[in-house]
Amino acid sequence: MIGIFTAKTPVLILRDPNLIKDVLIKDFSHFANRGRTIFEKIEPLSQHLAALELKRWRPLRIKLSPVFTSGKLKEMFSLISECADNLIQYMEKIASKNEPVECRDLTAKYTTDVIGSCAFGIETNALSNENSEFRRMGRKIFAPTWKSMLRNKLRDFFPWFYQMLGYVLPQTEVDKFFIRVVVETMDYREKNNIIRNDFIDTLRELKKHPEKMANIGMYTIFVYRNY
Q1: In this entry, which stretches build a coiled coil (predicted)?
Q2: At what angle do helices 77-97 and 103-115 cross, to 10 degrees?
Q3: Could you tell me which residues are beta bridge partners of residue 90?
Q4: 216 — pLDDT class (breaks 50, 70, 90)
């Protein structure tokens, strides 16, 4: 075990696999909180399973779990297979040029296509289009910028100040993009009566029954839709 400080907060880092297993499984109820402050109105997309405290994490997990059952995953197999066919065609095209292949970038593009198809119900074309907007935004999530670093520092070390200043800081391009994708996809399915039994359909169901969204962070996405 290693002890460190995050600002003035003492943090214990576990290195023993058995202790880590106990924390994540056997004694998870005692370690469920993530230790992060959630700024709901400033960062609507921060309210996800990896960040929420136990009080809101558990009901959100219950609502989203039906999306990831074995039956749902089997229904997505045809979508994954279609993306795999596109991957094969893309690899054959690269092989014909007899050029080096960047495997990390290749798998990232394939994964982007699968996520876009299975989760959002859209074709991202990350493999066929080098300038795919979905892929570009996916890279930006992990690409540090001075704005993102400023936000992180303020959030971690001056949360009270960030709570006030956060309303002034512009919403990130990534946040705007993914909120727009979700909203536009939901609107399109509503107008055309499309049902795919995927993540977006789960959000549509929650939208139709607001009482199911009590204390669920995903509700903020629908609040933003009305502005």
Answers
A1: none
A2: 150
A3: none
A4: very low
> Taking 60 as the threshold, does the pLDDT of residue 226 lie above it?
no
Mean pLDDT of all residues in 90-113: 89
Q: What angle do CA 41, 65, 192 make, to 5 degrees?
A: 75
Q: What is the DSSP string of 29-97?
A: GGS---S----TTT-GGG-STTT--HHHHHHHHHHHGGGGSHHHHHHTHHHHHHHHHHHHHHHHHHHHH
pLDDT digits (tens, 9 = 90+) for 176-208: 888 888 888 888 888 888 887 677 777 777 777
CA 84 to chain centre: 22
Q: Which tokens in the block code for residue 114?
A: 């699968």
Burial class of residue 193, CB neighbours in 10 A (0-12, 13-18, 19+): exposed
